[in-house]
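seq as requested:
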Amino acid sequence: MNKIIGACMLILANSLAAVSFAQDAVPHEQPARVINRAMWEWNSIEPILKEDKRKELFDFCEKHKINELFAQLHYSLSGGQDVKCELSYKDQLRSFLKDAHERKIRVHALDGDPTLILRGNHPKLLAEVKAILEFNAQGKPGERYDGIHLDNEPYLLVGYNGPFRKEVLLQFLEANKKCMDLMRASGRDVVYGVDIPYWFLEKGAGVDVKFGGTVKPVGEHIIDITDNIGVMDYRNFADGDDGIIAHGREEVEYATKAGKKVYIGVETYRPEPEHVIFIYGQPEFEFNKRLESVGGQFAKQYMHNGFRIKKLSDGKNVHIGIIVPPDKERQAKAEEALIEVGRIFGKDFYVPDKKAIDEALFDAEWAVSNEGAHEDFKVSTIPSGRSNRVYVRFEADMVTSPKITFAGMTKTALEKELAKTEEAFKGYRGFYGFAIHYYEPYRAMKE
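struct tokens:
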């Protein structure tokens, strides 16, 4: 009898083990992942202040499955050493946040200025973060920001492509770590994210920097520091070696290992051609020497006298230009700013040496063509202030490459490429979703 009972128990045990093994062998049904969709909104003042514009924005978000907004923060700074930041339109802002949350939309405070990453400006950046944290602490749960999202792009500074690059990247990392330290100390209820270009993780891109005792690409450091990143993965096609998937893979894989989140950012904006006037410049070693000779101050700028600076290399020489606004009243001021820049970085030519000037013009046109599409290339010379010597001045309308933006395409075409990208990345926990740049041009796209 005992033997029979024992045999039955053995059969039952083996049967249960077989069932258990079978259950383990079959993947459990996983709940569907939410693929989030964020959108930048730089022109946030109208939806903050005007209820009809707010409804229009939130209706658009609902229609296009946008559940997160990176909305431009409005504020003022005051004080000297002890910088104070005061948020603007606080009552309207709380109403905006309350309405967003009722529509199931999370809102991140957005700001962007390359100069804020510089060590001397860190107090301004920290004052801004502190003001957001205080705003949240003083508000009701539904009237608080869900995150802070910074778009401080260090490579826009003149000194980035030169002897100051490593220092610029180091200060960029220091700035973001200080922000995270401040948020952790506050017992924060917000997440912290930063935008970076896809090539911040590329090997051989010259972006390795030592931070925290470790040398690795700046993009890996910034993923380690922050809660999330928005990778500016600006292509209008998903597949291929130059597509969204290929350029975003390193960020998604590293974020998955680090336990962080990545938004794959795509562009829907195409700027008007930028009219840029350049002064023919110096060989790179001479340019860097001059950059250092002015105390590095010029290296810390991305604007001069209110005008955006553009830097261009032809492989031999570095040329500095000014982006000229369409406003005719400001064009004369732009010319003046260009001459000031030319006195520091321009190369002056001896007028009778026509061969040297012709060669310079050839190099200049090659440099502009290599930068991308251009229109209306023109050259001229202007007096340098020295006898019988001139600066070579060249200008062109610089046109954005079509491949970086979905502008001119349909929303259906955009969705097709996002679907391919989602399929490629949905197995990675670090893939948090998409971020679309930005509201107004995205809204203007045809269905």
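The mean pLDDT is 88.
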